[in-house]
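Narrative progress, year one. The postdoctoral researcher (J.K.) led the effort to move from monomer predictions toward full complexes, under supervision of the PI. The following entry was the first complex the group processed end to end, covering 452 residues in total.
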Amino acid sequence: MTTTRRDFLATVAATAGGAMAPDLNHAQQHDHEHQAVPSDLTLRVKALESLLVEKGLVDRSALDALVDAYEHKIGPRNGARVVARAWADTAYKKRLLADADAAIAELGYGGMQGEHMVVVENTPKVHNLVVCTLCSCYPWPVLGLPPVWYKSAPYRSRVVIDPRGVLREFGTQLSDDVEIRVWDSTAEIRYLVLPERPAGTDNLNEEQLAALVTRDAMVGVAKTMFVQKGSSA
Amino acid sequence: MNGVHDMGGMQDMGPTHDEQNEPVFHEPWEGRVFALRRAIGAWRKWNIDATRYAIELVPPADYLRMSYYERQFAAFLEMLVQHNFVTREELENSVPASGLPKATPALSVEKANILITKGVPTKRDVRVDPRFGVGQRVRARNVHPVGHTRLPRYARGKTGVIDRDHGVFVFPDTNAHFLGEKPQHVYSVRFAARELWGEQGAPQDSVYIDMWDDYLEPA
């Protein structure tokens, strides 16, 4: 029923194309083993894809559609539109905080790895930030696929024990009296931070507001900034 | 499993590195691994919890050395063999064994678009009584399962308060091992930073962790 690590190693060792098996060609060229480099992986993944296509297990055009969707269609601009709408429309913001799935669907977003959404609101006294300490859970429909830092050990390990230190690395300084809430995405609920609307943006329309909202602000590692045109900042 | 993937609270992993103008995929093969995993997932021979467990089985030194997509690729190869999609010989030779009928792909373009826009919900519309209520003090159980669990080590034995009830969801600890969905309530539990980290935590800070009923006991 359960794969053990011993099974795992056995399979990887038996799999010449396995990502962790020593690459013989490479070893011969360089006379030593070292970690896989992208060109090896390019060949290995290509070989696996061909095998699975030849067996009729996968349809290449479906693979293309998946890659294209996350490279070109689904990304943090979606989340920025949600945030801008919430800033511009108090009734929408209320719906977003009460039932994020329905409110996000109003703008046409939703789906894989965002099936169950919760939006948490930053205020002058409360700062939220999101992590997945166990893997890489992230709200894809509104933010796209996560950046490398979000999936990496430094962020995953530290943000729960030293959130202020991590925020400083992102250039975000909070005053000592601000309450930090870290949301560890251990289940299938995906979190989006609703950043504070920056001062001086009263005259901006929704599209202009959305342009201010960054991915990092919606994960909670940055604040949303607005620099007035013509100001000397 | 008390594995290296369970990173919350570990120290000395280095600084975070925020790459500017980061591409979605750094190399085309990463996108192919991403897509292949979904296309094979559509055969419904496994579930998301099983895929997470397969990645947790990557040996710790490799887990830390490998990139995110390298880990996914290694775990994916293991699962393909384990679930009889391919044999080890086929992987070695990169050609299908002769004499087998060709299958029809489970994931068409049309179904891929449905997958992207609808996802795979894990909330279950079944009546299960919650064991805890909002505002109740609870303790995360001090347990150390050897299989898959989503109860992070840093919270075990710690006391928190139920902040909200998310409803009834599939239970990963059984689902990852194909032992049933065991649907139960998931709560967001608020743990004070001081409860988790002692004096190092700021008095007003907290960590909210999503927890299934089976992870909790009354405090």
